[in-house]
Amino acid sequence: MTVKDRVALVTGASSGLGTDFARMLAGEGATVILAARRVEVLAALKAEIEAAGRKAQTVALDVSSEASIAAAFAELDQRGIALDIVVNNAGISGAAPAITLSAQDWDSVVNTNLRGVFLVAQAAAQRMRDTKRGGSIVNVASILGHRVAGNVAAYAASKAGVVHLTEALALEWARYGIRVNSLCPGYIETEINRNFFATEQGQALIKRIPQRRLGAPSDLDGALLLLASDAGRYMTGSSVVVDGGHL
Ligand code: NDP
Question: What sequence ranges are listed for the domain Ketoreductase (predicted)?
Answer without folding.
Answer: 6-191
